[in-house]
């Protein structure tokens, strides 16, 4: 079992392997499953990701309060606008991230990657990169495997819980996982994938968890969209040659320490941030009156 990102990268570099290959070996060793069996499980989870990332693009999903109902559908329509600032690909990725969040809020089936609150980021990036470059299923699943390995290390050394470390630990880690996956899907080196991981985490260091009315809708859905884009730009920065000045493992440690120091109001309690605004409080009151 690799205990750090640096250990994983060094192993890959010394053996001239991709990160997903090292992670696959480790998974087979730990689970006593064959490579075929591991990829079958990956395929099953990816299928859930695909469905959740597409479902709300076609039909708005109703949820308690309906705070984000229809946002994915609206964003997908906008993605077809040739005059959009970010272009089709990025807007489509945002729409898919919003879709998974909408499905989650409506009690639909999603794949927590690494959490339910951040369930749209990794699927949106995996699907977006795969669609843009016409990648085969195997390559996409390899990206998912890379993401899982990075996520495992972060869980081991820090946290992915919003209640423990804020949204940086949920959406931030999801972005870090997705960034690493995107780099490998574009044939970047293991070291590039590690730098992309660090850059993505740095970009959202200190991000608080402040769900309005305690619902995983606002600003969770919007952060799924923004952190999916964070993953993409972090991957591009790393592929262009940018290196994280702070080593990836130290960035993970810093994120964990920052999360530990966040006041309780900013750790999924809905007592601070946007949840504590006058409008946020009013939304909560109205929802409880209707219940």
The helix-strand sequence is HHHHHHHHHHHHH
Alpha plus pi helix count:
13
- Taking all Cα atoms into account, the compactness measure Rg is 18 Å
Number of domains: 1
How helix-rich are the residues, as a percent range?
55-70%
* Parts with pLDDT < 50 across at least 5 consecutive residues: none
Oligomer: single chain
Mean pLDDT: 97
Sheet of most strands: none
Structural class determined from secondary elements: mainly alpha
Total beta strand runs? 0
Content of β-strand: under 5%
Distance between the termini: 48 Å
Q: Which word captures the global form?
A: globular
Entry summary:
The protein has 13 helices and no strands. It is mainly α and 291 residues long.
Ordered list of secondary-structure elements with their pairings:
Elements: H1 5-14, H2 19-31, H3 35-58, H4 71-79, H5 87-105, H6 121-132, H7 137-157, H8 162-165, H9 167-185, H10 190-203, H11 220-239, H12 248-261, H13 278-290
């Amino acid at each position: 079992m690799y205990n750090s990102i640096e250990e994983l990268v060094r192993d890959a570099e010394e053996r001239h392997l991709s990160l997903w290959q090292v992670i696959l070996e480790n998974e087979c060793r730990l689970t006593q499953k064959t490579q075929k069996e591991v990829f079958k499980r990956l395929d099953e989870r990816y299928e859930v990701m695909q469905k959740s990332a597409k479902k709300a693009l076609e039909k708005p999903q109703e949820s308690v309060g309906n705070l984000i109902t229809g946002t994915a559908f609206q964003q997908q329509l906008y993605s077809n606008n040739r005059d959009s600032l970010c272009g089709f690909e990025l807007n489509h990725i945002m729409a898919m991230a919003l879709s998974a969040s909408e499905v989650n809020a409506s009690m639909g089936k999603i794949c927590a990657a690494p959490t339910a609150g951040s369930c749209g980021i990794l699927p949106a990036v995996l699907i977006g990169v795969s669609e843009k470059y016409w990648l085969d299923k195997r390559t996409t699943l390899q990206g998912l495997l890379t993401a899982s390995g990075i996520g495992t290390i972060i869980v081991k050394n820090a946290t992915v819980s919003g209640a423990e470390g804020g949204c940086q630990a949920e959406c931030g880690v999801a972005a870090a996982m997705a960034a690493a996956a995107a780099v490998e899907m574009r044939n970047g080196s293991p070291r590039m994938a590690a730098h992309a991981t660090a850059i993505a985490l740095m970009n959202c260091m200190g991000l608080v968890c402040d769900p309005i009315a305690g619902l995983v809708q606002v600003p969770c859905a919007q952060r799924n969209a923004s952190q999916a884009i964070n993953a993409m730009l972090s991957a591009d920065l790393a592929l262009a040659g940018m290196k994280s000045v702070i080593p990836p493992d130290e960035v993970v440690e810093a994120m964990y320490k920052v999360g530990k120091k966040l006041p309780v109001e900013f750790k999924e309690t809905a007592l601070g941030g946007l949840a504590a605004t006058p409008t946020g409080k009013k939304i909560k009151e109205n929802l409880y009156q209707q219940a």
